[in-house]
Structure formats: C-alpha cells, structure tokens
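Hi team,

Filling in the usual template for the complex we talked about on Friday. All components are listed, including any nucleic acid strands or ligand strings, so the model treats them as one assembly.

SUBMITTER: L.P.
PURPOSE: interface mapping
COMPONENTS: two
RESIDUES: 674
SEQUENCES:
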Amino acid sequence: MPKTLAEKVYDAHVVRSTSGEPDLLYIDLHLVHEVTSPQAFDGLRAAGRTVRRPDLTMATEDHNVPTLDILSPIADPVSRAQVDALRRNAAEFGIRLAPMGDRDQGIVHVIGPQLGLTQPGMTIVCGDSHTSTHGAFGALAFGIGTSEVEHVLATQTLPQYRPRQMSVTVDGELAPGVSAKDIILAVIAQIGTNGAAGHVIEYRGSAIEALSMESRMTICNMSIEAGAKAGLIAPDQTAFDFLQGRPHAPQGADWDAAVEYWSTLRTDEGAVFDAEVVLDASSLTPFVTWGTNPGQGLPISERVPDPAEMADEGERRAAEQALAYMGLTPGTPLTEIEVDTVFLGSCTNGRIEDLRVAADLLRGRKIDPGTRMLVVPGSVGVKSQAEAEGLDKVFVDAGAEWRGAGCSMCLGMNPDQLKPGERSASTSNRNFQGRQGKGGRTHLVSPSVAAATALTGRLTAPADLIGA
Amino acid sequence: MDAFTTHTGTVAPLRRSAVDTDQIIPAEYLKRITRTGFEDGLFVAWRTNEPDFVLNKPEFADASILVAGPDFGTGSSREHAVWALLDGGFRVVISSRFADIFKNNSTKAGLLTVVLPQAEVEALWAAAEADPTTQVTVDLQAKQITYSPGGGQSTTVPFDADDYTRWRLLEGLDDVGLTERHLADVEAYEARRPAWLPKALPAIPA
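RESULT (copied from the run log):
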C-alpha cells in the first residue's frame, strides 16, 4: 500500500501497536530547554526514575536568556532560577547542556540542525510547539507538553495516535523579494490557525524543492500556526548537502548507508492525503499580518480589512477584537502602518540566510531614526558566522542593535519586550496579544520586509525600496 | 494525576474563538518551576484590561466549567495553560474544536476537554448568561452533559471520548507507568535501530 512520507517515518518508529490503545512511538532525539522541563525532572525524581537515553537528549538555554551582557548572571531572579534548575537537572541526569556562553548554545530549533543532530527520517520532540521546524529535513518532529517531556525522558517513547495526512503543494517560482515566510503566512491565512488540526502537513511542489534548508525550516516551523501536528518536506540533495560534514552527521560508510535510506523517504505514487491545499508561488507577494493570530494576514499591498464586510459572525467578532487591540482602522493601507520596533530573529527567521537577506537591504543605508531594530541571531553558531561575514557591521552601521543568541523578543521572557501600545514588525511566528510584551502589537513579516520596514519606519515591501 | 469521573459546577461563558495559550497564560508567568501556583497568570491580560471580561464578573467567579468558542488552546505547547486552568478552579473546558497539543496536555493533567457542536456551545452560553447559577453535570462515565436551562426541563447532551483516554482519566492513571509495562518492546526496538543514528553524547567539536 502506497504511503506518504510522514506515514513511512511514523511506521518505522512504532514500538508497539495494539487495537484500542495508542501506538507506542520511539523518539530518536529529545530536545530540552529551561521553560518546559523543570516539572518533568521533578516528576522523575519523585518516582525514582532516571533518564532512559541521555545520549539521545540535548538541552540548551534559550527562552529566558538575555541578549546583552550574556556572560553575567541573569538579572531577573525568576529567570535565573529556571536556568539554574536546568543546569542542576542536566548535571544530575547526565544530559548534555549548551549553556549561555557555550559555542553550541542557541534556540533549540536552530542548534539541532546546526549540529547535525537533526536528520531525515528521525522522530524528534521537544517541549516547544515550534519543534515542527526539524521537519524540513524529512523528520517527524512535533511539540509536546511537560507531562510528555517526562514520559520521553523516562521511556524514550510516546503514546501516539496516527495523524491524518495533508499535502500543501506550492508550484511555480517566487518573485524577487518574496520568501518562504510569505508562503507560510499565505498558507495559514488560507486554512486558518487550526485548519490543519490532527494532520501532518507535507509541503511539496517545485517552489518548495527550490528552497534552501533555512527557508524550508521557516515553512515547517510555522506548521503549528496552522494547527498541524507537524510539517515536513521530503529530504533531497539540498538536505544531504546541508548535513554532510556537520559534527553529528554520519561519516564514511555510515554516510552512504544513511543517504541510501534517506533517499527512500518520499511519498509513494498513489499515496492518499486526507486533505490537499494548492498554492501558486508566482502569484504570491510579501505577506504581513494585521490581526492577533497568524491567520489574520494579507498581501502588504492590501488595506486593513473591515470586519463589517465579514459574513461569518465568529470571524467578524475576532476581527473586531483584533483591530481594537491592534489600534487599527479598517481601510488603512497596510503600508501606512508605522512601527516602533523591528525584530529580526527567532526559530522562524534567526538563521544565517535570514540575516544575509536583511543585511543585503541594509548595506550602506540607515534605518529610520524613530525605529529601533533588534537583530538576534538564532544561535552562537549563527552569530559567529554572521560576524565572520561582516554582517554584524552592516547592521550596526545601519543603526540596528546586534545582540546575543536566544528566543528574545519572539516571546519576551527575557528583557527584550515591547512596551504597552508599541508596535513591531517581527520575523517571529506569533502575533498573539501581548506575545512580545504586555500591550505590544505585532505584525509578522519576512526578513526582507523587516529590513525594508526598518529603513522607512512603516510596513514596507522590499520592492518599494528600489530607487528609494 | 487526579481521576476524573463526574463533575458538577457552573459555567463561565467565554465568547471568544481561537483563544491561544498565550492568552490563557502569558510567557512571563511560565518561569515558575513547580507544577502549581499558576492561577495568577490565568487570562491575566483580559482580567486586568477588560472590566467586562467574563471572569471579572462576580456571578462567574466560581465557575468550574469553561465554555469557549472554537479553536481553544492554539499556539504554544505550554502545559502551564492546563495547569493554570486547574489552579484557577476549572475541571472541564468545552469547545467545538480544540488545538491538538492543548487537548493532549489536558488529558495528561486531569482537565477534561469536551467537544460539542457549536449549537450546543451556544445553548450552554445562553443558559449560563440567563442564569449563572445553572448547575451543569459532566459525566465522563456516561459520556454526557446534563443541565436544566432556565431551571426548566433537564436536557442531556452526549459527547464522544475515546475509550482509552476515558479509561485513563477515570482511573487517574499516568502514562509513564503504563508504558513501563512494555519495556521489553522498547528494548527490542532499540536493538534494531541503525547504528549511524546520531547521539548527542559525546559532544563532537565542529
């Protein structure tokens, strides 16, 4: 029977399957960070359990870490206590930890691929919904809660129900200045924030195949914003080239054996998807969100929508609440919305390619004097590479702030936050109320729209800068 | 985990759709390293900024059944959202559609999520708004909800619950103990994993 890519990976990890019970699925890699793990370790201790496979577990500090003065103790005592708890737990249970200051430290979803720990065909989990990022390599990767973190620590498995299958096919060629972020924002706007509930999305089509690994990670990262269990892309030569030579990638004869297996990881001809979505890449333009969930987005050339014109009552009420929170008037051109802050970073867009794209637009220019721009590399590795390429100088010369690595303003658990009423253009993944700081207003954008917006102080498409 | 068999309480009608877990509890309240004490973060932005917010109304302050619009619990995987609802006195959340991770987390912590058609959600909203003291019984054993709208004739609404999850909740069983019964299967699986799969230890320098 023909299978989808996701079904192949799922089936290869079933430890036990019995009618009337969830399947028991083996987990190849468990990523851990400080926010969703302390209660799980406490649970292990209370039951006298150990971590079954410390060698398949990797921890890092990312959510709470300051992006300035990172070698000093964290000033916020509560954040510090959480990071300290992770350090104690990693030491007690024998888990590798990349702490602040370590060259492997960074956002958990940036360091997995960077170290070569993320590979095709694996099952990967983390107490973080953006674990779907790793699906870019053809891994089945998904976010879990803290009880499940404890379960994986104790058993290296998870009880799971077989997910449904959705395909998102994107054919055609992207116009210049249009990126992976615009593709995924357009997908979410089309199917809604819970439109893929219960499904794993496989992204396919010529536009997806043409993307770099960084761009594929951007797309898979936001699968959860469409409600999907996971998102993945069939591994190909682009994925193999990215992995070869990374610290934890297989070598020699192992590499050949791995590539032979990885090459079988594609959806069979005739496999059935439960739902199918089709997008034409050539029709896409830069996308921005206007509301308070990632599905409330439009092409940047559009205007703030009018809730009165929405037929569905629930949708209308949600739009009214969103516009009230965002302080926006229906009919305003999106390109007239002024921002205070531009945030470039996060597990969605904090990789080297994202920084390069933004730097290319900023090189030799100055950002708007009334706008602050925070550039937060996704990991110490990304930061080092960017500095080796001189990108840090480009950002600083343009008037942006060059920071240390972490989750930063994506969710404001560290000091990088919006103040009440402040408005950002952000390359992160969620524009929920208060996400970037109490009362803060977020517009989700791509790295190139972020850079263009920093230059003008209002939401701007990169194409509109030419000649400016 | 506490077992869940049946619960009777009053309803808080939350007329909002796509309530994300950042609204249920914002990130700054996730720094606590215990499993309890999250009630201060529960819907804190709406409780602080919106005098009309349902949980600010005294008549709904003691509600233990939250009835929300579609797509409840989207976004972040934080199980703290479930803990905050439990700490805030809720034992049941009813919606026409839940986000997967939230629903899954709730089953691990003993918060019952019940999916009802939107029309039944609207009926519960109307009943609670007409009379906030309306008692609603959620019976997981019988898979049904019973209440008397307007103090009139009793109405019974059936709901689905998969047998396995229902059994775990009724018994208050935690998954780790159940999985440990199958360690032999786990060991057999590990013996056939390819040797080239990556290990985080020892750390390999770049």
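MY TAKE: Chain A has a mean pLDDT of 97. The radius of gyration of chain A is 21 Å.

Thanks, L.
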